[in-house]
Input
Amino acid sequence: AQKVTQAQTEISVVEKEDVTLDCVYETRDTTYYLFWYKQPPSGELVFLIRRNSFDEQNEISGRYSWNFQKSTSSFNFTITASQVVDSAVYFCALSGGNAGNNRKLIWGLGTSLAVNP
Amino acid sequence: EAQVTQNPRYLITVTGKKLTVTCSQNMNHEYMSWYRQDPGLGLRQIYYSMNVEVTDKGDVPEGYKVSRKEKRNFPLILESPSPNQTSLYFCASSWDRKGTGELFFGEGSRLTVL
Output
């Protein structure tokens, strides 16, 4: 069975602090895809990143960076110099590549990040 | 502008009164899906479709129906709504027909069933 665990339910930081959101996944598929989505207070779901299981390179996009480690089945998300606008719920998700495990995402329960001024 | 449009955004209804939540995308995506989001339960897939006239059940399909007569539209039908279907609903589409690609979401439809 596939599973995504986001152990941190809520995180509160002060603006300009760095913060890391943890994501641990379980799958037996050799090919799979990992995602992060953001849900700001306005409620919409916004795609942040997609990473396939064969690409373990870390990725940086502005203040956002992602650390993918197959050895620990983790796909952590770091926000550097956090800002109030980063306040949102962040979801990690997994899609298996094998037939039967693709066609849908397995979602973590999300981490609610509050960035205080 | 590329978008997924859901209607209505907010709806209060009563038990048993049939309703339809519409979803339309303008990106020519083959894959479309419906999710519901509930506190403590996260996002759960209701139905998905990989192409016109092809639909399949997700994790929580009971009490819902869908249709995919046209590529752009994927309505969610609640034939006889019940209070346990009170939820926030999201429609999504993707360029990847297997559903392993980036999902584009609608703004959500908040449904209350009394």
Observations:
- The two ends of chain A are 41 Å apart (CA to CA).
